[in-house]
């Protein structure tokens, strides 16, 4: 077994264990931190596959942006962990067969060449000066252009739905009209009021007399 294989099995083990801790940790903050570890392990696997662009994107987008947002939301909200655990074991009869199926697919993919079950041809040799970023862009915007646009439309609909659910009227909460906020002007927000410094007919109080100062005594 060579060194890349050892690194692969170590990162894969860390990835699987951290993914299990994401769904079994009782503290939501700990679960989010284990998810960060899972993303980092997945980025290491991408590096082993010579997909540096995907690894860097995974670290920057998910670990650097999405997980930071998740941690802020988890720490700002008062999450009732016991209520979240309700009904966890009720979905086990459905989740267990799905998990076994996914493990079987991953096992067949990884161990297929050892048992003569090659599921796909080996990747071609990479020429010198090959850029996987350029190759991803060419494939994404030529062969998979329509699925890419469809995914973008679905994400746009999800964003609009999230905004619509957030802006719904609730009791005992203040709501903001976005149209009014956008149409706000400086004249409508700020009003200059001219106020006199003193009221008419009322004289300013006379200053209190200062106590007499004693002359300093000269030394004899």
Task: Explain what you see.
With 220 residues, the protein is mostly helical. Among the domains are: 1-86, NADH-ubiquinone/plastoquinone oxidoreductase chain 6, subunit NuoJ (Four Helix Bundle (Hemerythrin (Met), subunit A)), CATH 1.20.120; 131-168. The protein is 60% helix and 0% strand. It contains 9 helices and no strands. Helix 1 packs antiparallel against helix 2 and helix 2 (28-48) runs antiparallel to helix 3 (52-76). It is elongated. The relative contact order is 0.04. The mean pLDDT is 79.
Structural class: mainly alpha
Provide the CATH architecture of the domain at 1-86: Up-down Bundle
* Tally of separate helices: 9
Query: Portion of residues in helices?
Result: 55-70%
Rg, nearest Å: 33 Å
The first-level CATH class of the domain at 1-86 is given as Mainly Alpha
CATH topology of the domain at 1-86: Four Helix Bundle (Hemerythrin (Met), subunit A)
Tell me the fraction of residues in β-strands, as a range: under 5%
**Could you tell me how far the N terminus lies from the C terminus, measured between alpha carbons in angstroms?**
102 Å
Per DSSP E runs of 2 or more residues, the count of β-strands stands at 0
Helices and strands, in order, run as HHHHHHHHH
Shape: elongated
């Amino acid at each position: 077994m060579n060194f890349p294989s050892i690194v692969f099995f170590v990162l894969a083990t860390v990835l699987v264990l951290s993914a299990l801790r994401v769904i079994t940790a009782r503290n939501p903050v700990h679960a989010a931190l284990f998810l960060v570890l899972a993303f980092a392990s997945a980025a290491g696997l991408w590096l082993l596959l010579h997909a540096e662009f995907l690894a860097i994107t995974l670290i920057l987008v998910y670990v650097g942006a999405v997980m930071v947002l998740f941690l802020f939301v988890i720490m700002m909200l008062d999450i009732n962990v016991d209520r979240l655990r309700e009904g966890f074991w009720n979905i086990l009869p459905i989740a267990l067969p799905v998990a076994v199926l996914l493990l079987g697919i991953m096992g067949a993919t990884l161990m297929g060449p050892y048992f003569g079950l090659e599921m796909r041809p080996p990747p071609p040799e990479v020429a010198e000066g090959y850029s996987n970023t350029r190759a991803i862009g060419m494939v994404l915007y030529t062969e998979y252009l329509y699925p890419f646009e469809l995914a973008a439309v679905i994400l746009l609909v999800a964003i609009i739905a999230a905004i619509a659910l957030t802006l719904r009227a609730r009791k005992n909460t203040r709501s903001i009209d976005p149209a009014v906020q956008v149409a706000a002007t400086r004249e409508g927000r700020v009003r200059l009021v001219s106020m006199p410094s003193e009221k008419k007919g009322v004289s300013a109080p006379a200053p209190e007399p200062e106590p007499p100062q004693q002359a300093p005594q000269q030394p004899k």
